[in-house]
Amino acid sequence: MTKIKGARVLVTGGQRGLGRAFAQEFLDAGAATVYVTARRPAAENDPRLVPLPLEVTDDTSVARLVESVPDLDIVINNAGGVVIGSLLENDITEVAALFDINVLGPLRIAQAFAPTLARNGGGALVNVHSVVSWAAGAGAYGVSKAALWSMTNSLRLDLRQQGTQVVGVHLGYTDTDMVRALDVPKNDPREVARQVVTALSEGKDEVLVDEASAFYKEALSGPVEGLALQG
Fold first, then answer.
1. Which of 95, 205, 222, 224 has the most other CB atoms within 10 Å of its CB?
2. Is 144 in a helix, a strand, or coil?
3. Which residues are catalytic?
């Protein structure tokens, strides 16, 4: 269980899309400060929002971020990338770069801020997965999110001793720039963020945002043929 009121929160990729929704939801829930990162951060009007530069694939950039954020209670690993198309046709260099962003990036942040969280009583680490962590059919992006899910489960064990709550978030299509052009039902980013804030407050380890995520989580116990995207 993680206290939100008065918390100091870091949201990677926090100046647009789902990251922006996380930032606003935490402020509405009483967080004192929300650090929002971007490769090229823009100024914020709300003094409680502190924009900071971050490139999650760059160790030096991560180290500078740690120096800029001496105290922290909650880390949201939201920043990510996407590569589309068949795995058989993807350029290996592009796939490797995607894994650097979606898997090694969150690991860099987790390693960098674990000591800070420990000093402040444990706090929480939230990793944003996807329904395609479990459902095949999203190519390299899905494979990277499956790896992130597995990593989150390992980090939960590693961080248990220091009292850090580790939360994995699974969601389907959500109304952000990445899928805005798709004519499909989409989650409201603020509702996603709201569920995460609630999960932190209630001490939960996992958030299944929508029906699709719940469906594929249940399908894990069945035949592998059932773990393919429907429709």
1. 95
2. helix
3. 141
pLDDT 10s digits, 200-209: 999 999 999 9
CA gap 34, 27 in Å, rounded: 7
Instruction: Answer whether residue 31 shows pLDDT above 70.
Output: yes
Neighbour tally for 199: CB within 10 Å: 22
Q: Is the pTM of this model over 0.85?
A: yes
Helix (H) or strand (E) holding 8: strand 8-11
Bridge partner list, 42: none
- Pair type for strands 74-77 and 8-11: parallel
Cα-atom radius of gyration of the chain, to the nearest Å?
17
Which amino acid is residue 180, in one-letter code? R
Q: Residue 203, by phi and psi: left (phi above 0), alpha (psi -120 to 50) or beta?
A: left
- HEC string for 84-130: CCCCCCCCHHHHHHHHHHHHHHHHHHHHHHHHHHHHCCCCEEEEECC
Q: What is the 3-state secondary structure (H, E, C) of 42-80?
A: CCCCCCCEEEEECCCCCHHHHHHHHHHCCCCCEEEECCC
Query: Of 68, 40, 37, which is closest to residue 52 (Cα–Cα)?
Result: 37
Enter the DSSP assignment of 199.
H
Token output for 80: 């990510």
